[in-house]
Amino acid sequence: MEGSWFHKERFLLFLALGLLIQGRGSTFIINCSGFGQHGAYPTVLDSVFERKAFRPVTNFSIPTLVNISFTMSAILDVDEHLQLLSSFLWLEMVWDNPFIRWNPEECEGITKINVATKNLWLPDIFIVEFMNVDKTPKGLTAYVSNEGRIRYKKPMKVTSICNLDIFYFPFDQQNCTLTFSSFLYTVENMLLGMEKEVWEIADTSRDIVQTHGEWELLGINKATPKMSVGTSLYDQIMFYVAIRRRPRLYIINLLVPSGFLVAIDALSFYLPAESGNRAPFKITLLLGYNVFLLMMNELLPTNGTPLISVYFALCLSLMVVSLLETIFITYLLHLATSQPPPMPQWLHSLILYCTSPTKCCPTALQKRNKAMGLPPAHLPGVKEPVELVGKMPGPRETELNGCPGSTKAQQEDETQKQHLVDLWVQFSHMMDTLLFRLYLLFMTTSVVTVIILWNT
Q1: DSSP state of 130
Q2: Which of 72, 92, 194, 227 is the most buried (most CB within 10 A)?
Q3: What is the mean pLDDT of each run of 10 residues along the chain (456 residues)?
């Protein structure tokens, strides 16, 4: 048993010695017939790998074809501020060494062996968008087949620059590029090819990539443009990596609380403006919304202006306008009940135009005012008794007082005053209704926009 293991070790050492010695012909055929009869000393390996710096070709005018492929196993981080994508790749490179050949039948059926990469010529393939130091571990090995095909795989943590568009955050999709090219060899010396089809790379990466992160892999496409540097032309393969952010975390932590606060602010319109409770309630909501924005600021991108920031600004602006409208209406109702100012003609005409459908059904207007706890509004053209602010004297009381002219003038003044009060109250109702409908339109548009962006 020990003798068999010793002979196998000697054979592998003898085979490695023969693989890396270039013959005088176009190929070097390793002869394994003498296995077990002659040994090899480890010190002989010092002179074996002296020619590893030379490109392994029989004719230097023939370019070396290097087939590449990769597997994206994880999307580590996306930095919107620095415009960087951090991912983990398994890069695979395959090329042929024409000086390596052996017959597996003569070498105990061995078709491939492992050789330390420090003893082999390696293609200088790099990623153009790479923005960090390559920390590939040392001491890796490559597989060498009996036909001279070398297959080298290495893990890489890639921090690449990527042009990120965060306008649709958190429903954004990003397209980043990974361009593989040679640093030294032009197209006369090295050509790049595909070891696997691009759909195979995309499917394998989607199956392996970790699913518990913030980003998911959508697909991978490729292009093969040439890169010109001065008079030199380099071959390259450009991969387009499409990724998408998972928005569930941001919907729960950002959009849902904001929507609840805006909905509560919309429901506050059911509070009577003349009671004085609506304005403090809206101020409390406004302060709470500002605290919410301060707490959630860490989840928002620091670079650019995403659509969600515009949404938050609109929510805040709508709440501020609602508070200002409540303060104005409260002041207007107080002024109307004490000393109502004259109403401009254009505003009077606007109220008549907006309330014209209620002329044929004045009962509905009275029911709405009664439901809101306000006195009935009497507009011009509606033939109904007018409720005065003070108690008006009857005809017999007028005769007893002996001042029929003054009483009639006083009655007309009170009627005009009450009519003016009703107009200002009607105007405040119109403003409340308009802003409330604006709230409903904004919330409906927001919900529909979120659903469309999430599904697409």
Answers
A1: B
A2: 72
A3: 46 45 46 44 43 79 92 90 91 87 74 82 90 81 85 92 90 93 90 92 87 84 87 91 91 90 89 81 92 87 84 91 86 72 64 58 43 42 34 44 62 67 73 84 88 83
